[in-house]
Amino acid sequence: MARYTGPKNRLSRREGVDLFGKGNKLRRATQPPGQHGAKGSRRRPTSYGTQLREKQKIRRIYGIMERQFRGYFEKARKVRGKTGEVLLRLLETRLDNIVYRLGFAPSRSMARQLVSHGHVVVDGAVVNIPSFQVRAGQTITLQKVAMEIPHVKERLGNLDYLPPAWLKRQAAAGHVTRFPDRSEIDSPVNEQLIVEFYSR
To answer: Which residue ranges are recorded for the region named Disordered (predicted)?
Structure first.
């Protein structure tokens, strides 16, 4: 599956928030990137523009391309419950995101790399598909080789890290106890705007 490989700070500046949790201070955070960023920012955003920005923001946070994200939305629309909350739940239970939430990797992009390189095991079987949907009750562990990667080793040694309440972690093993509630998903997005965007 394709993924974005361009400059990440540019995307964060466009959305006005640190999308990738790298702790970088955004220069000119209120000004979109590009030569004419300041000129473009004077325009009052339309309702469509606001909805588009929210959709792009969540897509970039989870590192998903447009076609795949549309697929997640269509899947969420068919499930009983609030479409926006179901969409967030589907994104949160992706394998690469759970590896990140368990604290095995400092970013979602590194978590994705760990998965695609075959370093992650789900219920005893190696899974190298970042978009794999993890179910409640499944256990995620790291291969021994992965535990020697400096960034991973550092994260595993951080005993102060607390994963979200819907996950449990012990050393290099994590367990999905249940699906997350909306209040437990800290992604800075308004999912209702995304639902409105696709409902036009």
So the answer is: 1-50
CB 64 within 8 A of CB 56: no
The residue to which tokens 């920005």 are assigned: 53
Domain-located, residue 159:
yes
- Looking at the domain assignment, is residue 2 inside a domain? no
Q: What is the pLDDT of residues 60-107, one digit of tens each?
A: 999 999 999 999 999 999 999 999 999 999 999 999 999 999 999 999
> Residues with Cβ < 8 Å from 33, sequence gap 6 or more?
10, 13, 14
| Distance of alpha carbon 37 from alpha carbon 100, whole angstroms | 32
CATH assignment at residue 169: 3.10.290.10
Query: Looking at the domain assignment, is residue 121 inside a domain?
Result: yes
Q: What is the CATH number of the domain that holds 72?
A: 1.10.1050.10
Structural domain range at position 65: 8-90+187-198
> What backbone torsions phi and psi does residue 170 show, to the nearest 5 degrees?
-140, 110
Distance CA(27)–CA(22), nearest Å, equals 14
Q: Is residue 3 part of a domain?
A: no
Report the pLDDT averaged over residues 24-36. 57
Segment 16-32 shows an average pLDDT of 59
